[in-house]
Structures are given as structure tokens and as C-alpha cells.
Amino acid sequence: MSDSVLDRIRQNRQRAAVPPRSDTLITKAQLPEQAEEAQSTELTLEVKEPTSIANNSDTLKDLKTELAQIPETNRHSAIVLEKELDQHLTRYCKDNRITVEVFLEAAWIHASSNPDVMEEILAEAKRRYSDRKRAGKLRRLITMLEGQS
User: Fold this and answer.
1) Are 5 and 11 within 8 A, CB to CB?
2) What region, left, alpha or beta, does residue 97 occupy, with left being phi > 0 and alpha being psi -120 to 50 degrees?
3) Can you tell me the mean pLDDT for 80-96?
4) Fewest C-beta atoms under 10 Å: which of 18, 64, 98, 145?
5) pTM to 2 decimal places
6) 66, 72 in Cβ contact below 8 A?
7) What does the DSSP assignment read for 10-22?
8) What element of type H or E holds 9?
9) CA–CA separation, 90 vs 79, rounded Å?
10) Displacement of CA 86 from its chain's centroid (Å)
């Protein structure tokens, strides 16, 4: 029965008819001329090819040299942040047209060059780590107790 309903729907649908275009971009008279132009373009490319290869290899060498001067990157695991902090950090980075990862790199470089700042950050990090461990234990206990009900 579903096949017959589907067939009826297909038969009853009205498709809009699109009239053929009268303003074609290429007329039949232009086609032979374009063929000649294409052949002349191919001949021109064949003549220029050896110099373009030399330029490409020089350009490629320059690009590789420039890339070698930029530090290599490495993927890191996903970062878990507090919801509110994540929203603020993401908004800040978007407003300044940088990524969170680049911001963290810059913050690390700045903090590691200043021992006092690094100690403050480490103390805050240890406090947050302790809070997260406690939250994990609480979630596990809640799940165990809910499972007993």
C-alpha cells in the first residue's frame, strides 16, 4: 500500500517548467574562434613552461625556508574548562581574532618567564585540580546511590 501512495504522490506533484534560455553566452559562430584561441593558448603555455618550473622551484624553496623558521606545532588532547570560564575565554579570543590554543601558548610563555606569576598560577591550578577530583568522586557516589534505588 505504501508503494501505491508513493506512486500517487509522485504522479500528482507539479514541477515548475523552466523555459529555455534565449540569451546564451556562447553563440554557434563563436565556437570555431574559441577553438583557435585555445590552441594558441596551449602553444603559449608550452613556451613559458620551463621558466615557470624554475620560478616554482625557487618559490617552493623560499616557502619551505620560511616555514622552517616557524615553530612546529603538536596536537594536544581536548581541553576541559569550566562552562563560564570557557564562554568568557572563547569570546575574548574571538574578539581578538586568535584561538584559545594560541592564547594558552602566549600565556604559558609569559608566565614561565615570571616566577612569581608562575607560583600564583600553580597554586590556583592545584586548587582547581583538587576541586575537580572532589566533583568526580561526588558524581561517582551519586551514580552508585541512584543505582541502588
Assistant:
1) no
2) left
3) 94
4) 18
5) 0.52
6) no
7) HHH--PPPPPPPS
8) helix 2-12
9) 12
10) 19
